[in-house]
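Give me structure tokens for this 254-residue protein.
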Amino acid sequence: MPVPIALRPEVRGPLRVHHASAFARFGVDAVVTERVGGVSKGPYESLNLALHVGDDPNDVLENRARVASAMGVSADQLVFADQVHGDRVADAQPDAPAVRADGLFTSRPDLALVIMVADCVPILLVDEQSSDFAVVHAGWRGLRGDVLKNAVDRFSDPTSVHALLGPSISVRRYQVGPDVAEYFRDLPGTVQPDQGDRSLLDLRQVAALLLVGFGLRDDHVRICEESTDDATIFYSARAEQPCGRFALVARRSS
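Here you go.
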């Protein structure tokens, strides 16, 4: 069975982050940012990391610099993807425009990979046998497609890969129509009936089952207990529009 875990809040400089301490033994420093600790204003208050949501770009760049400092890297060592709800997993490249992808892969120790979310599932994949690791953005479109398969395929042996499924919207708050629910009815326990023809979809359970189906051991899949439901600690696009984006950030430990 996938393993439930709680992330550990800790202060790094001006920020409080949520540390995936269980992954430190694999040589990876992974954190989830909050929505507080930055300089963004209005509906983006305050640690919005996304340039595409209408926020002041200068504020976003300052927020990103704070995250870089918390991770012990320079701002140009943070690698972002231009996320499009697709299935591409790209090699992380420093000092380059964000590539259109929903996953980033590297073995480099000098880069911190960033996946931004506001209800979708941020996923970390780490190989216990090598320095390879990846981050993935998984909403229902990506989960219906091949983004997780493409990410797992980047590793030589999926049985040595460990996964973290970070904070996302919970099944209690994620109502979908029959067209979306139909894609996942074959995955046990992922679709629950709701009012009328509507259903509730458990995105993290979908992701966990798919990862196991692609070769990960089920006890290597960890699902965090935190959610985006109330939009107080993390941004939630279902709760607020417009809103910012928080992030899963990971790098190889020194």
